[in-house]
Amino acid sequence: xxxxxxxxxxxxxxxxxxxxxxxxxxxxxxxxxxxxxxxxxxxxxxxxxxxxxxxxxxxxxxxxxxxxxxxxxxxxxxxxxxxxxxxxxxxxxxxxxxxxxxxxxxxxxxxxxxxxxxxxxxxxxxxxxxxxxxxxxxxxxxxxxxxxxxxxxxxxxxxxxxxxxxxxxxxxxxxxxxxxxxxxxxxxxxxxxxxxxxxxxxxxxxxxxxxxxxxxxxxxxxxxxxxxxxxxxxxxxxxxxxxxxxxxxxxxxxxxxxxxxxxxxxxxxxxxxxxxxxxxxxxxxxxxxxxxxxxxxxxxxxxxxxxxxxxxxxxxxxxxxxxxxxxxxxxxxxxxxxxxxxxxxxxxxxxxxxxxxxxxxxxxxxxxxxxxxxxxxxxxxxxxxxxxxxxxxxxxxxxxxxxxxxxxxxxxxxxxxxxxxxxxxxxxxxxxxxxxxxxxxxxxxx
Length: 446
Known about the structure:
Layout: H1 26-41, H2 78-87, H3 94-104, E1 109-112, H4 119-133, E2 146-149, H5 153-167, E3 174-177, H6 183-190, E4 196-199, H7 201-209, E5 220-223, H8 226-231, H9 235-243, E6 252-257, H10 262-271, E7 276-279, H11 282-287, E8 290-296, H12 302-310, E9 317-321, H13 325-337, E10 342-345, H14 351-363, E11 368-371, H15 373-376, E12 384-389, H16 396-403, E13 413-419, H17 427-434, E14 441-442
Parallel strand pairs: 1-6, 1-7, 2-4, 2-5, 3-4, 5-6, 8-13, 8-14, 9-11, 9-12, 10-11, 12-13
Helix pairs in contact: 3-4, 4-5, 7-9
């Protein structure tokens, strides 16, 4: 769940009146005469608007609730509390309740949590709290105080968007550097003040080697989806980037991962200093708000069954996940030919088109998006009613990530997974990962 910041009230400075009896200089007289002539032709000025009174945290009244952590209990800056009030949130999510007391106290953490749990807000609120309460002696261009690294463009851009929303009422500057978008424009942004830098590894390393950015002033480092970094081969780049930051005993590091294979465990130990570990179990994320269905059918039946379901009256926004780029591309083409307007989001689509596609998906109702897992990691869209797994994912963790696109922030959602004759064998691994028995059922007849 996102967290926000207080809006600062800015007012234009009133002109300082001249001292009574003071004679104007000739230049000032000319200016005064010119101003008088101009004012004769000018229209009467409108009455000044009434200023909005400053926000008071007393307006944010949340009653204590058993088993719930109020944001009031975390001793946050009033400007952050104002943002929470604006967004309508009252209580911290489980990952926030577990992480924030530790990170706000300055501890490094290793968090095991999936997307959709509120972890983005958990690490951003810590970053913002520290930036707002510990001002540096000076702020320098090209030297961020906080660095957030994410594996994909979409995820990085979403994190940056959340950070900008949280910090929009402050003078903090958020800059994003990702591949596939204008290089020179990003370089120009780095030439200014950078408080929070959100980046993907490849583009950040490029700018680092070009000396367009310096990381020696980084006070807070966030590594999001470390397991995905490993899968995508970013670890060598990540090591070089982290070596450019201060020693781990000096900076604060927050590392999050959905799973913890041996390599991620080893890396997290080398990058963090006396870390505290927190864990949100995948089954609690996957089952609380999402109605999960597993339909048994033949591979040749998938397309028609999918179209029939997508055309049902209760269908809202829907995402369809496929395991491969070519599968997702061909499926989107077939759906459009069968009368379902479907958009495509995969790694083979140009970055600018991916951004436009995602914006269209967010802004329109009853839209259908076909996506691959890597592209889908960056999708944070409210109001998704259905997630379809056209293929059972090869890795159980991807299943949790996929269905986490629906049922977000306490809303209900439905996840439908197609199980054909070739995919049934993968259910055992998923059952083991989720810790429960999966029951397949025939496709319901209308």
